[in-house]
């Protein structure tokens, strides 16, 4: 085996973990760097644990993995504590927040919650409650993050969430959403899908239903514009689907996706996890989904653009094409979320700033 | 140029290390520079120029840690202190296998005294002075304590002096090996001091902590020593620990073991006379 870790070898580890038995120390070193850059060190510890590979990891690497595991274990514990406090805070205004993303994975104990690092907590509240929620949060010491004027205006006008809150005492960050996709995209998810049929846990905390959690995860990924660390997201989708498939038939999500207008995104998820993790999902949902999309064009897009963009962004793996693919996904993400009348002025401001930063160095706007 | 810094406990690679800081690194790190090229590296730093134009006008350099850039870019002349901070940043951000306390560590006869303090209290200067006067400095910045043995571990690194302490050490220990002074960092002027050779470092072993001394340099003040209770000491140590909140039960047990074995003191001083006898008394 050669010394360098290639893109295909990196990907193959996740479907064929015993490949790691052949890894030399230099390859482990490269793997750890890539995983750290992709926020996946802690998750990888648990991946090895699940696949009974921990005993084959050399001392050098296991030390780094254990360290990351300690950190993520504590974060998972903090999420439990933070969600307790949020639940109580919002009870004062009679609002029951729906916990999204990382917090939902932790609360539901989904397979992907182990080893996770999270930068913030996401909650969903009915649009009508936004103002009272904002006030209750401020009373509990949450502070709205100061953004520059332009970004502040963007949030207020176009996004599906308030500007992020921070809690200086507890060091937490909170995103408050009123729907799961920006309204400006033209897609509206009816409130009944978001606030009914949810999972209510023993302590009264709520998350979206299992299939909506998965749909949200893939909408989040495929409407995103930043693909630097998205390998973790596709792995999330894969693990969530594995959990789901244990008890349910995946074609049920397919129907939900079709009803909500996320046909294509669901097909992306099935096809990409098939190719990365050797599953057979497209075959399972074929009759339900392929009549509604142009599979030839979609497959071309997946194979040449999305897969290349999903490779973790790191000098050790990146080829020129990966960077270009990520840039295409960046433009696409913006395009999906903004009609041209908004997008053009937005790019004008951002690209003027980019030009200034190119000349003055990337730190010109930092205060 | 790519180079390796082997600190004993951690191994760093510095990619694109500019040749102008090589002499300083060679003087401070001795044979730890470029040691064991075949062994794997824990943390990779990459030094980059910030933009094409900046390469010629007011050149800046920036340190990347894989994809992260924790610090603002700096003038070329301030690279060495930034590099030292980047090493600290990596350790404090990524190592949760040890309890890390913001503290200098001095050791004699296999017994360690740790001196936790806020920046500017004089903990590095104290460590540097005694490191050049017969003690071994395990670190001037953080006590790295093993979660199983509860012993403090040595790092091979220079100490870092700020502002007036640079002249204090130059005056008290004229023979010290000191790097050129980096003037005008966000913490003022900085110089680094070599405290031991790699050969001397290799003889060090993990040590038991027997005392915790909270130092406070005050000009024109006679040596003043206050004994602290272990309870007060415990809570002050928690306050100075980088990662106690992350380590949970292991962190508590490690700290408890350190506290059980230690005496605690608040000291203020303006000269090192008398301090020497006091410190020697703690390890007898």
From TrEMBL, chain A:
InterPro entries reported for this sequence: NTP_transf_5 (IPR039498)
Pfam family, any one: NTP_transf_5
Q: What is this protein called?
A: Nucleotidyltransferase family protein
Question: What phylogenetic lineage does the species belong to?
Answer: Bacteria, Pseudomonadati, Pseudomonadota, Gammaproteobacteria, Alteromonadales
TrEMBL record, chain B:
> Any idea what this protein is called?
HPr kinase
User: Which superkingdom?
Assistant: Bacteria
């Amino acid at each position: 085996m050669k010394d360098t870790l290639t893109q295909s070898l990196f990907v193959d580890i996740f479907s064929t973990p015993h490949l790691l038995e052949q890894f030399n120390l230099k390859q482990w070193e490269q793997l750890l760097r890539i995983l750290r850059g992709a926020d996946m060190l802690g998750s990888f510890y648990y991946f090895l644990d699940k696949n009974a590979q921990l005993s084959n990891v050399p001392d050098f690497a296991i030390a780094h993995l254990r360290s990351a595991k300690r950190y993520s274990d504590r974060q998972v514990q903090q999420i439990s504590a933070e969600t307790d406090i949020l639940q109580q805070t919002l009870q004062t205004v009679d609002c029951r927040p729906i916990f999204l993303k990382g917090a939902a994975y932790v609360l539901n104990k989904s397979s992907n919650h182990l080893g996770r690092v999270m930068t913030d907590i996401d909650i969903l509240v009915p649009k009508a409650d936004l103002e009272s929620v904002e006030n209750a949060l401020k009373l509990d010491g949450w502070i709205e993050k100061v953004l520059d004027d332009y970004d502040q205006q963007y949030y207020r006008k176009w996004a599906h969430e308030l500007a992020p809150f921070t809690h200086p005492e507890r060091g937490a960050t909170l995103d408050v959403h009123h729907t799961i996709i920006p309204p400006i995209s033209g897609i509206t998810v009816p409130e009944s899908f978001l606030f009914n049929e949810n999972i209510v846990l023993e302590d009264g905390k709520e998350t979206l239903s299992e299939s909506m959690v998965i749909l949200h995860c893939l909408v989040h990924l495929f409407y995103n514009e930043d693909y630097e660390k998205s390998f973790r997201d596709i792995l999330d989708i894969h693990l969530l689907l594995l959990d789901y498939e244990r008890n349910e038939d995946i074609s049920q999500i397919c129907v939900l996706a079709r009803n909500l207008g996320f046909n294509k995104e669901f097909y992306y998820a099935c096809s990409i996890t098939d190719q990365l993790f050797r599953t057979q999902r497209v075959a399972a949902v074929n009759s339900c989904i392929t009549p509604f999309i142009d599979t030839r064009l979609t497959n071309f897009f997946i194979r040449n653009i999305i897969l290349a963009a999903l490779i973790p962004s790191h000098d050790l793996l990146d080829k020129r094409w990966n960077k270009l693919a990520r840039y295409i996904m960046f433009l696409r993400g913006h395009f999906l979320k903004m009609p041209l009348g908004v997008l053009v002025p937005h790019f004008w401001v951002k690209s003027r700033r980019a030009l200034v930063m190119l000349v003055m160095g990337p730190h010109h706007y930092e205060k | 140029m790519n180079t390796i810094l082997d600190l004993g406990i951690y191994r760093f690679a510095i990619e694109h290390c500019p040749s102008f800081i090589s002499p300083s690194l060679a003087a401070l790190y001795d044979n730890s520079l470029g040691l064991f090229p075949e062994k794997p590296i824990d943390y990779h730093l990459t030094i980059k120029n910030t933009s094409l134009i900046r390469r010629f006008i007011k050149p800046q350099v920036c340190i990347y840690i894989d994809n992260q850039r924790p610090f603002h870019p700096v003038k070329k002349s301030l690279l060495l202190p930034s590099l030292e901070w980047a090493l600290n940043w990596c350790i404090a951000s990524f190592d949760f296998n040890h309890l890390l306390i913001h503290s200098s560590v001095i050791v004699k006869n296999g017994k360690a005294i740790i001196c936790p303090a806020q920046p500017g209290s004089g903990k590095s200067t104290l460590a540097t002075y005694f490191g050049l006067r017969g003690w071994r400095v395990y670190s001037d910045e953080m006590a790295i304590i093993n979660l199983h043995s509860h012993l403090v571990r040595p790092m091979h690194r220079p100490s870092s002096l700020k502002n007036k302490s640079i002249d204090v050490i130059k005056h008290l220990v004229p023979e010290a090996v000191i790097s050129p002074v980096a003037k005008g960092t966000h913490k003022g002027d900085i110089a680094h001091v070599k405290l031991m050779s790699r050969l001397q470092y290799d003889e060090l072993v993990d040590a038991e902590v027997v005392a915790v001394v909270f130092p406070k340099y005050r000009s024109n003040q006679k040596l003043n020593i206050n004994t602290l209770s272990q309870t007060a000491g415990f809570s002050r140590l928690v306050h100075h620990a980088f990662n106690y909140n992350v380590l949970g039960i292991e962190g508590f047990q490690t700290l408890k073991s350190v506290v059980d074995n230690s005496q605690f003191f608040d000291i203020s001083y303006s000269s090192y006379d008398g301090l020497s006898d006091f410190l020697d008394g703690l390890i007898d």
